[in-house]
Specification:
Oligomer: homotetramer
Largest interface: C-D, 49 and 48 residues
Number of strands of chain A: 11
Largest sheet of chain A: 7 strands, mixed
Shape of chain A: globular
Helix content of chain A: 25-40%
Radius of gyration of chain A: 19 Å
Strand content of chain A: 15-25%
């Protein structure tokens, strides 16, 4: 494994290492190639040495954390070899190949695979995930925003347009050093970024558009960096169609039977989800404006935990296997 | 001085102590009465002893940080004695006495004074502040929200309704201990509060309503607690009427000549305003939705610094007296 | 359960809830009496209602988190009823009853029980913990300091006196609100406290004295508060007797076979132990001065995790039962 | 100006910009050469453009923040041109040229200048600083450790050896991005570094050795990184010679007349010095071990503020010019 967000990758290795149904066949990393796993994960009891490139011949499944496009270029080969793929990158999240040049500045290297990819959001796609061969785990802001809005959109309870104000911790920016993640710059500070448009926005529109049957309201998504390591809180604003009770009931019903997404009676702090695969949602209003807040841990439900959840569904494990454990607080 | 937010009060004493035109006649505090100033402000070279109640007979001006209603009950007496009043509380911010029972659960103790009070927001009321005898310094969220929206509202460039998503540091909650400001609860966490309606909302509506000439759009204001000590960032969303350039120009023109509010070309981090009286504003858009961000230090421009700024105007000092100093970074 | 550090108590409930060999018979709390468990632990699937006082008749073991002296007053009754006791308080940590008036300002309520109590530090007392009926889990600073020094003291490799400089996160101060845990006071700050002498010091001296066979060097322990939630790092300084290699080998040998205390080749960050029962130790020197650093999570190995570890030994479970799980990072 | 710690450099420009006796002739920076000052310091009203190399012909004084050795190579030329030099680097701090290869891995480029350099620590060298032509401002850990120990050493009140445990905020590591200053690594963590020996140690030994008249006790200095932006707290341990009162009096007398170093009755939090040039010292004991704590802001008294203080003395300004201002809290 390599690429994008090294924190999500580290979290994934930790989750898989305790998963009773998983045997880690091979970890790969260009930067760590040749080093023993224990040099990188000193506290996991893992034997083996990092490989250079994912061979994937003897494995049943590849969890790919490769950078955008790199994994996509390999995906066809893996699938043909009978290996299933849980892709943590953005490569297969968007169905419409025309969106890639616009948001990722490159044509998609394997557009023919886009239609068979299943978006790895179990609350929306649990059925398709069973026996899925190519799973595209959505982004962290997308996961929070979609889970914060899906029941309202599906029930036709959204009037006017939608504003999603997302606040994320710093680990979402990955582990590569830069001024933007420097402690002395980021601590004691909050700021907006990607105001013109965040790459996770088209994922939100695709998914909510499908639920809206073509009547998707306009969505504005602005992301903010908050001085904490983990966590995302999205605050979603839209005009209330019908009563607040009706809205609340739509959420309870939508998430009924889903083990990780819970509708709370009070607005969640992001911290209540830290180190867990939970998504906590609250439905409220200010006058005629619905205000829905949703919180996740960006590295777990917003990345690796959700990847494992999808894997569990795809391979017939209990959906919570490897993902249980007490809430860590504070 | 006593009451509400002890951090704002401490900041005020520090600002006044270095103000060349100010001689501190008397500090009062029920909790510190009888103690020397130096016991509470060990690093200021202040001689004197805290009094119990503000006598205000030998002073030209009272800076009142008393709790809501307590100061209002004294205000008439002070004004009759020829003492001018800079009130840091919410007591005289709202013109309409009917709003007090609704937002503060009490009738106003001196409604006859409401009309002569000038809201202490120099960017809107500099003219009235000259020779003002009763100044009501607005709240921290209000200051940020009003400064983030006033030029757009005044220029008629706001289409549809407005969402204001405000993120504040913990010092805004004051210095009294509670679980809500406990380090282990607040650190590594973000959450929304007062979703149903924040007390600063009517201040925002009153001020923007006046600028809108009765055509005020609906405003939704939701406040969030962010794990940092100082700073507020508001993100304001509204449908763009006209072009982004037009909107930007309206902001530049509106704040031209105002020393502390600056229109930046990029979105500000709250930290750039820390320990200063600055308000930094950026005007941007996502598609047809205008996204204006505004940052202040909640204890300075959001409280004490603005109080001193109003005092400077009211007493004919340079508007920046006592408020200059280099930017503190990081 | 009630008392002292509510964060340690919350952590304990979480650990026991996932322990395969534990059935929670009754939680008690004066403040929560009558409330369902789920109101306090919304994310644990626990059925039941908080009791007022620990009855302890139908249980095999009581985990007591009662305040100092309150638990001790009940202990005799519980033990006579055949219930074993894991006490998280300081009540049974010191063998010498004369120390209680000095450090806790009260005579001990049940001095006759002191000799049968086993100090709950498995690295030193694993043998006695088997079948122990009364276990006194040591303090968080004590655990880190003892584990940082025990091998050197036992091997006679300490020359001159010892300085232990301990740095702790804020959760060690418990959950009760006070100015000392207020975010705006504690954030961006470090300070020493209890310079004259910390209550955990006599625990350290008792345990190291026993290992030193009466030749215990003088120990100075100063504690510091660091702006983080979890974690303790102790830096231990003493004159090196023999070589650094010899010292290092003494540590490796001493902790051989102990699953949670590991000797690292580089100095640990406290964070590497967060949310785990690990104690990570590094042995180094600056010239002729040995510098040993030891890190723990103050709420886990420094409190509840160690309590569960002792329980596992006392009741014949695997020592790591309920305490495994991947390292959470960051 | 360029080099080492960009935060110290930024702080210096801010301090000089408000200094009434200073006209900034030229700022230089290889990375910013050709850019206007306002691009880098948007909130200072500075006109001009960064130069490439310090010409220093038209200036009375150069504040050099160049990397180690780079400034030293220029120093002779500047001094010959009649320009005085306040050097923020380590180049001229050590009198003994033999120490440079050991601690900085290079021979000193201008050893003939070492004897005329005055260490820029006014509490020890105020007399020599008057008319000094070459001032070497000491390191941040050195400043805190020397100020924490000097009175005891000078009065012969130190028995046995000395342990200095120093805790610093992250800004001391400078502004260059690296994993070691990454928010997600550094937040919620404390660790020791440079256990084998920190470069500031020889500065401490040189200065205290001079005060000790050759009877300098052995000193062990270990530095720790604490999750805060600003501040250093050193905890100094040594055996008490004489009484605690005697020790306390020695400190009060030593710092009498020095405006920035104050002896407090209680142990200081580092934060009380933030954004100021203060050094706050407390003298206490645990049994027969003296425990002296000293706190500074690493970027002000530990770097730029002290440089300005030295400049004030050298050029006959009031020692506090440009350095006053209210305490910023929280």
């Amino acid at each position: 494994m390599a690429g994008a967000n090294a924190y999500a990758r580290m979290t994934l290795v930790n989750l898989l290492a305790r998963h009773l149904g998983v045997e880690l066949a091979q970890l790969t990393s260009r930067s760590f190639a040749g080093q023993p796993y224990r040099a990188v994960f000193p506290l996991l009891e893992l034997d083996g040495t990092f490989g250079m490139e994912p061979a994937a011949t003897e494995a049943d499944v590849v969890f790919s954390c490769l950078p955008h496009n790199v994994g996509a270029a390999n995906a066809g080969r893996w699938l043909q070899a009978g290996v299933r793929l849980i892709d943590m990158s953005a490569d297969f999240r968007l169905k419409d190949p025309a969106l890639y040049p616009r948001w990722y500045r490159q044509d998609h290297p394997a557009p023919e695979l886009l239609q068979q990819a299943v978006l790895g959001l179990p609350e929306l796609h649990a059925g398709e995930l069973v026996d899925a061969r190519l799973v595209a785990v959505p982004g962290c802001h997308s996961t929070a925003a979609i889970l914060g809005l899906a029941p309202a959109v599906a029930a036709g309870l959204v009037g006017g347009d939608v504003v999603v104000d997302s606040k994320t911790g710093v680990s979402g920016a990955g582990r590569s050093p830069s001024l933007g993640v420097h402690f002395s710059e980021v601590s004691e500070a909050v700021h907006a970024y990607s105001i013109g448009g965040h790459r996770h926005a088209p994922e939100v529109m695709q998914e909510l558009g499908a639920l809206a049957n073509g009547a998707l309201p306009r969505i504005t998504l602005v992301t903010h960096l908050v001085p904490m390591i983990r966590g995302i809180l999205v605050t979603c604003y839209f005009d209330l169609v019908g009563s607040l009770d009706e809205l609340h009931d739509a959420y309870v019903e939508f998430y009924s039977g889903h083990p990780f997404t819970k509708v709370l009676d009070s607005t969640p702090t992001s911290k209540l989800t830290s180190y867990s695969n939970l998504c906590l949602v609250n439905v409220a209003a200010q006058g005629s404006k619905a205000v829905v807040t949703a919180a996740i841990d960006n590295l777990v439900k917003g990345a690796s935990g959700q990847g494992v959840e999808c894997f569990n569904i795809a391979f017939g494990f209990s959906r919570t296997e490897g993902l249980e454990g007490p809430l860590q607080w504070p």
